[in-house]
Amino acid sequence: MAYETLIVEIEDNVALIRLNRPDALNALNSTLLGELSKALAAADKDDAVRCIIITGSEKAFAAGADIKEMAEKGFVEMFGEDFFAAEAEAIIRTRKPIIAAVSGYALGGGCELAMACDFIICSDTAKFGQPEINLGIVAGLGGTQRLTRFVGKSKSMDMHLTGRFMDAAEAERCGLVSRVVPAKDLLTEAKKAGAKIAEKSVLTAMVVKECVSRSYETTLREGTLFERRAFHALFASEDQKEGMAAFLEKRTPQFRDK
Ligand code: HXC
């Protein structure tokens, strides 16, 4: 499928979705987020895709929601269309693992998009920020909630109230990103991580994703019960039998996603 604001390639069972509005530093407008929703749904349905990577350009993952598109809107319009609610849902409804590969600016909605993915690998040039306060607004794609859960209240308040940017070293230190790599290696490293995930059973990977995601949405007791039941349920899968048999027979497992 051809997109106006995205470039999508599928290689070795990994879908690479590249945000492509270079003139606006990949600012997230309705077209881009609408297309991203469609591309994620298509990747989720496609048996050839086992993992998804979302990336931007070297200069910007995304510099936020598109300020030009939002500037003249009023409350009634924003509320009436529930601005970007469906698009935010589409990201978290995606069941296959999504890696955000971030280089350059990931600001406002760009930082929020990266955080809505399952984990973030960034380049040493990455800059994260929630500078919405400078525009007289607050984050609207989950930033005040996710950043706080990921890095704690103090740093989240600091980021949202001062609007300052965080560099890659700080992002790794505080657990916002899983790894920092040299800018020139970003895509190679993200694809390597994607390939590792693609080797696994998609069924199991989706259950793992549900369990870890649940930890941000429920109490420890409920979350551990959810995990235990998921663990039990996987014993109904062929891939559990295959994974354990392969270990015992000292061979590589052949998962069939069943
Ligand atoms: C629309 C944007 C944009 C944005 C950059 N551009 N960010 N357009 N929306 N968020 C455009 C610029 O207008 C400019 O277009 C071109 O991209 C290059 O940007 P420059 O500013 O010239 O580049 P530079 O000097 O290198 O500065 C980079 C920057 C700066 C630091 C990232 O662009 C910046 O501060 N951008 C805004 C960041 C921001 O406030 N994000 C939060 C948005 S609100 P022209 O046509 O002039 O060349 C948000 C809310 C989310 O995200 C909630 C949604 C529900």
What layout of secondary structure does this protein have?
Layout: E1 6-11, E2 14-19, H1 30-45, E3 51-55, E4 60-62, H2 67-70, H3 75-80, H4 85-93, E5 98-102, E6 105-107, H5 109-116, E7 119-123, E8 127-129, H6 143-151, H7 153-162, E9 165-167, H8 168-173, E10 179-181, H9 186-198, H10 202-214, H11 220-233, H12 238-248
Parallel strand pairs: 2-3, 3-5, 4-6, 5-7, 6-8, 7-10
Antiparallel strand pairs: 1-2, 8-9
The structure holds hexanoyl-coenzyme A.
Catalytic activity: a 4-saturated-(3S)-3-hydroxyacyl-CoA = a (3E)-enoyl-CoA + H2O; a (3S)-3-hydroxyacyl-CoA = a (2E)-enoyl-CoA + H2O
GO molecular function: enoyl-CoA hydratase activity
Function: Could possibly oxidize fatty acids using specific components.
